[in-house]
Amino acid sequence: MKICMIGTGYVGLVSGACFADLGNTVYCVDKDQEKIDMLNSGEIPIYEPGLKEIVKKNYLSNRLIFTNDLPKAVGHSNIIFICVGTPTSKKSKSADLSFVFDVAKKISKNISRFKIIVVKSTVPVTTGDKIEKIISKMKNKRLFEVVSNPEFLREGEAIRDFRYPDRIVIGSNNNKITRKLESLYEPLIKKGSIFFSTSRRGAEMIKYASNAFLATKISYINEIANFCEKTDVNVEDVSLGMGLDKRIGSRFLRAGPAYGGSCFPKDTKAITVTADLFKTNLSIIKSVINSNSNRRMLLIKRIGKILSNKIKNKKITILGVTFKPNTDDMRESTSLIMLPYLNKMGAKITYYDPSGEKNEFKKLKNVLFSSDLSEACLKADLIIIHTEWDEFKSIDFKKICKNKNLKIYDMRNLYSPKKMRSSGLSYYSIGR
Q: What does 3-39 look like in DSSP terms, one character per residue?
């Protein structure tokens, strides 16, 4: 099939490359000429394991085309995916749909034959209805069909998630179109993925409801971790015992910093705003949002306690600043609050992250990036493990750090408290 992906951000680029890898011809469109030039030169603007190889393979095979020529890409394609961002609005907590609606208007100007328009961007329920109205103002309804096909890609695991999804959700009010999209995903369905069809609004709701539930699980276990610390209980035992219950499951039950990234923070806010418009109070999800917000400051205040509230001039090393490993995504990461706070308190901060230096911290005085893990830890008074990159899981702290009074705050519970303390290290973790 001939496919057009509008937006070469995380979702558009990964999905486009993977669709091309299934044998389709894919046009990846973006208005950012610099990004298109990067992609055409073999540079990947996002950090995602395995993506560069798939892009190169399909680009050289002429199945993956990068362009800013939207009319041409739309004209050549049968299926058009909208993959632009839906960030939190600056004016409210709702999703900013301006990019989605702008794309819809541009698509409407370039339809001359029937097109399936698939919304992959995460959008509030009823957005598909609004897109349909926008396009209907310029084009006959017989020339297009608007479908919802939410993405469930995890950063750092996106290639695998595309190839082996738990489910493929299609929201359409047209059975013929549903079958057409089922044939597009047939290679994945044959490998065991579940194909689930529902109404367009149903698919939109599934995405938001799923993310809100996963955010709830994270916030829940973080609150239980706080309780465990007060009662001398190991939260990992609690997580394991809970996860063995098939009704609950083990995923997203690891205590740690507040949830971050591009999805959970904005989607939990957006679904509550949409619910309010329909006069429905999602009190549980609102509580999750508040709990997550409080989580950041709770962990930061604990750093003060670890250092006996003597933060000024302390040499603090932060290992990992992204919101999760195997990505360069900084959106809503706890580090964005933690580093400026510690900096304001007078700490001398060095951070190391495998995905590289971050623009967000370049303007902060006494905050340095180190490209070498050992060098970053050498003179530290306190080492904070913020992100669970694999290379942080087997560090010999005594070997690489000269400070005999070194303290370690493991926010990801990567190490055994018993082993760390038996080796003479002052070790602190979450809920243990």
A: EEEE--SHHHHHHHHHHHHTT-EEEEE-S-HHHHHHH
